[in-house]
Description:
alpha/beta, three-stranded mixed sheet, six-stranded mixed sheet, binds 2-acetamido-2-deoxy-beta-D-glucopyranose, transferase
Amino acid sequence: MARFNSRNNSSIWFSDGCVFLGGVLAAVFVVWGFSSFIAAFPTKNPNSQSVTTKLESLKRPDSALICAACTHGADLRHDCPEKTFYDDPEMGYTLSKPMNNWDNKRKEWLLRHPPFIPGAETRILIVTGSQPGPCQNPIGDHLLLRFFKNKVDYCRIHGYNIFYNNVLFHKKMDTYWSKYPMVKAAMMAHPEAEWIWWIDSDAMFTDMDFKLPLHRYNNHNLIVHGWRRLVEEGKSSMALNAGVFLIRNCQWSLDFMDKWASMGPQSPDYKKWGQIQKKLFKDKNFLESDDQVGLAYLISEEKAKWGNKIYLETEYEFSGYWKNLVDTYENITERYSEVERGEKRLRKRHAEMVRESYSEMREKYVKKSWRRPFITHFTGCQPCNGNHNPKYSGDDCWNGMEKALNFADNQVLRNYGYVHPNLLDSSVSPIPFDYPA
Length: 437
Ligand SMILES: *[C@@H]1O[C@H](CO)[C@@H](O)[C@H](O)[C@H]1NC(C)=O
């Protein structure tokens, strides 16, 4: 699913031998070194000197590391023989195994695996998952499959990797707490990824073209949808959503997750945290400590320690509330069609792999007031167990999901020559040449 441009290109470089490769890598390091080592790893680390020294040694064509890269680096079926953090018996994937000095360990791993260096500072791994057993809702598993298909489509279009997990990594950390052990394990398993993007199983992409504005997050390590003032001053835990978050693969995030998860059901302080959360956040309507209120607590009460590194996004629907969105899809479809009727280049048929260039071209015509919502999140609908929040009718939830899934699917099927003419109907029609002129 992932597209590593470096891999395609490097197969050409590698056949030309070490010296040329050394030059190419040196060039890559200069560009990458400045932008990423400074911007992407904001924590000051006393050991950064050793990494810089290694970086220097890598530029020398006689370096043993370069030769290791020549023989194995481009071939993903080979690992580098030198020791990395994986060889440390103390290193573990569970939340209970502390990890120190992760930023340097990650950097060193990257230095030993140069094919992953180009693009490292923006590389994203999507992590999502669902419960270990079958869904109680008779259509639950079908819905989850379609929600997953939607994420796979998005990943294929943008060249991201995805990890779907459906086992509990910690017996006591179930439901909304289950994601933290998964995110930690994903960080350990993917040192090549700068960001881990958790997306709940009931959230989906409804703009297949929009990409995260990562440049905005250079000084932040955790991005969630929400309104800072409502969280900090209004003590509202509904003013943010912890079901979709982007977290930097760095030491700060590991420390933050330790803190965050210390409010979870595996912790001796679970009960105490439930009381603290309930007392402070009046909109919390149950006693058990939960991760969303936990996050709101850390943003508002431990602002200097954690809150300042957390970005609350409101500029676009990073986790859009479905109730406000599902009735807008038809009109939005019409607006996008109008744009395409007015610009022949946007109607040009093209391969899915070159789709991003058309998305960029369309961007200047799209207005914020009617742009497709990036993510539609069916909060409270519970597609798998079917126990939706009583304030919604089940039909609202199921029809809303059907519409959203077909709305997103239309954006994908366009490249395959088909369209769902009716968003409430999964059947499709072939699209004619020059559609939608
Ligand atoms: C969609 O557009 C129609 C016609 O312009 C308008 O009457 C309707 O209110 C719009 N629906 C929504 C949900 O915005």
